[in-house]
Amino acid sequence: MSKAFLLSGCLFFAAIGVKAQDVTPLKKDSTAAVAAPVKSKTDTLKPKYINPGKIAGRQAMLRSAMLPGLGQIRSGFNLYRGLKVAGIYTGATLLTLSYIDNNNSYHIFLTELQTRAKITAYNQAVAANGGTPPPGLVEPLEKPDQNYAAVSDANLVTAKDTYRRNKDVILFSFVGLYLLNIVDAYVDARLKYFDVGDVSVKLAPTMMNNSTMYGSNSINGLNLPVPGIKLAVRF
């Protein structure tokens, strides 16, 4: 009985101790939870390199394509560029005059051959009809050029073909001159931005191995080195 009473007393005082505890919830320290610093993202991309020489070259190409010589002039007029533009138009003028001359000569020989062909066909038709013109056949009004009376038909054909080929060559020359003008404008604009300070040229004496293909500079069959000059260009 006493043991039961003692056990009940222990439980009673234990319950009182539990109730006496502070059950107030702990407040979280707002300063403890500090937001993690946000790392700033730095742009690691390097700025895109713009080559001014390439841009200027393309612009010069377009200008010279629209008007030959314009790309050279817009790159900065000087005596050298002025002479190049003058050369372009001088070449174009000479090609034009040559084309006109060859075209006129071509048509002269072509007309002479056509006139001879008409007269020959008319004479053959008259001879086949017993010496009288067939009904409806009209005698050609064209007369052969007396300046070429002694020239055979074969020689006339050769001359005609020669002038025709000359015309074709001149047309290709026109195209070549036009393309050369565009290429020159591009190269000239690129060289304007080329830093010649990065170019170094070095000349130095050296000894070169002499092979048998260069001569007989040998003693007892042994090829001896020969003096020379070494050229080194660095960009």
Account of the 3D structure:
This protein has one domain (52-209, 227-234). The strands form two sheets. It has a two-stranded antiparallel ribbon. Strands 2-3 form a two-stranded antiparallel ribbon. The chain contains five helices and four strands. The N and C termini lie far apart (113 Å). Strand 2 and strand 3 form a beta hairpin. Helices cover 55% and strands 9% of the residues. Helix 2 (52-66) runs antiparallel to helix 5 (153-192) and helix 4 (79-128) runs antiparallel to helix 5. The chain is mainly α.
**Separation of the first and last Cα atoms:** 113 Å
Q: What do the pLDDT scores average to?
A: 80
Could you state the oligomeric state of the chains shown?
A: single chain
| Total number of strands | 4
User: Portion of residues in helices?
Assistant: 40-55%
User: In total, how many domains does the architecture comprise?
Assistant: 1
Strand content range: 5-15%
> Structural class of the helix and strand makeup?
mainly alpha
* Spatial strand arrangement across the major sheet: 1-4
Helix and strand succession? HHHHHEEEE
Largest sheet entry? 2 strands, antiparallel
Number of discrete helical segments: 5
What's this model, at a glance?
The protein has 235 residues and is mainly alpha-helical. It has helices at residues 2-20, 52-66, 70-74, 79-128, 153-192; strands at 200-208, 218-219, 222-223, 226-234.
